[in-house]
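Hey, can you fold this one?
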Amino acid sequence: MNKKKTQLRKHRPTAEQWRFMLIFGLPPLLLFTFFTVVPMIQAAYTSLFDYSGYGDMTWVGLDNYRTILTDSVFHQAVINDVLILIFKTIIVLVLSVLFAVSITRLRFKKAETNFLRFIYYLPNILSVVVIAKVWKYFFDLELFSVVSGLETPENGWVGTYPLPIITFVASWCGVGAFMIILIAAINNIPKERYEAAELDGAGQFRQLFNITLPAVLPQIRYIAITIITSLVPSNMNFVKLFIGEAESSGFMVMGLYEYNNAFTYYKLGYANAAAVLLMFIVLILSYTLNYGITRKERQ
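Sure. Predicted structure:
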């Protein structure tokens, strides 16, 4: 019993550690609470009212949620976001791993490596508006038809295939930053592992699946969860820039569904109800993915 008490005393923070935590930990906690937690609570509260953002608030209870769950536009928005999420995650992870492995494991010269890093990271430097406009012009001016040799559809490439195009452009934007994270992780893998594998006759692909990928699973988990948590604003931005008023075109995502109801139809309570539902969807997806990858790491 005395040993346990002694161990607990040893693990207790000292007065200096408490001061350090208060100085450097309390301000971020207060800012996070004020800018994140408080708005979430306010959104959940106003979702129970018929509220335009101005004037009186009328209590409706769970009516906003019932209406949303029976709205076919919301259903389609969820489906579109989930499809973008699935294909974007696959594309970003595959390309990030491919580029990171090629830069770290292939014998490029230093100048070539720096050039490739810059080219791959370039989309992360550019504004989303610039990227969307450039790609929109690429498809609208029928340059894609010239390059691919395919005939332009009657409604244009963006109007006919909005989901694949938005998924491709959104994925292209995220590869560079995640590639840098994977490069740092791969460089921390002891070289002795690769040397021992080569002595055992393991080729590059076997080294990739038996050494590299298991070692960078924590970074892969971080990348996947980051893609999920940034799903709403990124998809909304691209849809807004590529298509504009998506509801008239039949293409909708969850972020734009909330935006339209809040700032076009002035149904702020209804939009906040959609935001609360979306928060739960993102939490469930993040938890499921995190649990799956963490379990794989422990095996």
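The CA atoms of residues 197 and 206 lie 9 Å apart. Let me know if you want another pass with a different chain boundary.
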